[in-house]
Amino acid sequence: xxxxxxxxxxxxxxxxxxxxxxxxxxxxxxxxxxxxxxxxxxxxxxxxxxxxxxxxxxxxxxxxxxxxxxxxxxxxxxxxxxxxxxxxxxxxxxxxxxxxxxxxxxxxxxxxxxxxxxxxxxxxxxxxxxxxxxxxxxxxxxxxxxxxxxxxxxxxxxxxxxxxxxxxxxxxxxxxxxxxxxxxxxxxxxxxxxxxxxxxxxxxxxxxxxxxxxxxxxxxxxxxxxxxxxxxxxxxxxxxxxxxxxxxxxxxxxxxxxxxxxxxxxxxxxxxxxxxxxxxxxxxxxxxxxxxxxxxxxxxxxxxxxxxxxxxxxxxxxxxxxxxxxxxxxxxxxxxxxxxxxxxxxxxxxxxxxxxxxxxxxxxxxxxxxxxxxxxxxxxxxxxxxxxxxxxxxxxxxxxxxxxxxxxxxxxxxxxxxxxxxxxx
Length: 425
Known about the structure:
The protein is globular. A six-stranded parallel β-sheet has the order 1-11-10-9-12-13, with helices on both faces. The protein has helices at about 10-15, 25-40, 40-50, 65-70, 75-95, 130-145, 165-175, 185-190, 210-220, 245-255, 270-285, 290-300, 310-320, 350-355, 390-410, 410-425, and strands at about 5, 100-105, 110-115, 120-125, 150-155, 175-180, 200-205, 225, 230-235, 260-265, 300-305, 320-325, 340-345, 380-390. α2 (about 25-40) crosses α3 (about 40-50), α5 (about 75-95) packs parallel to α6 and α10 crosses α11 (about 270-285). α10 (about 245-255) links the parallel β9 (about 230-235) and β10 (about 260-265). It is an alpha/beta fold. The model has no long low-confidence stretch (mean pLDDT about 95).
């Protein structure tokens, strides 16, 4: 059963405690990365047989496999994919940055130009669940940014095929190439390149502890988005809220993973008791009851605060991946939320809207990193270069001052570079 805590009476280290995966996989991952870097495709085939229990003859998904997958999906699902994709494009198209140029005195020109990365890699998890939503969320911003090629990797099933819903989403999103490989070995392939899989410049997408550690280890050789942790939801709800609705929203994230975190912060002890009871009522009807129950019992909590204002202070300290504001006039509180990945406003905006359909991105900072990180966006797939142009007249006006600055730092070569054009015109 989910725990109820009274803020001010329960120790703060218990209120703000986070359960983490303490399994150290760094050595295993380092060995996998080294094997893929050395052996290329041969290591991928070997690890796919070892971990996914399937022997493949080809890593790349064929056009025929994609067509077959789409044909297997009900038309209604394809329609929902296309509508969700349209919403995601609408939202992320507003994030596109523009070049700018500043013209100053004496012919000085400065500016910034935006360039997309040449090739991006998208990791899509398999395992306990398939996530076509991740395909849409992580590939559409890349396409809007103008990425030259988008390469997707995802583990195959025991039949040697990729989940058809994932392939359908990839087709809708415009993914260029898809490969049947998962785990740390897939991240290695994207980072180093193999005979079949091209090296990319940026890797995005969530995964298990092995995938997260692999991304950590290849960072620097390639760029990555974030090191994603278990899913989190925090609901701020007042006493007018429907306890069954709040319970369902908490369980929507608890079912992701046994390490997921579901937290309710409310000023109403009556609501706390109601939600506690409704969670127990709903758990037995869930297809992933065991996972959700473990998450709720180990990581879930209901925090009773003195007021909604105090509840939001608590929420900001936790800095959750997702936060729901189940209160009257939620926009009155929007600017009070300082640290959160994605904010869901009002009683009719459950978090799964963001997972699948509304258009805002669902690849979000976890583990309190919302205090300094942002959701995945078009910005993740671009580079900003700056340029400067000075005329001879403009340079001569500032050369002595810049040389003085350089000499203060003991960098006489810098100073000479500034002055030589005056000394030897």
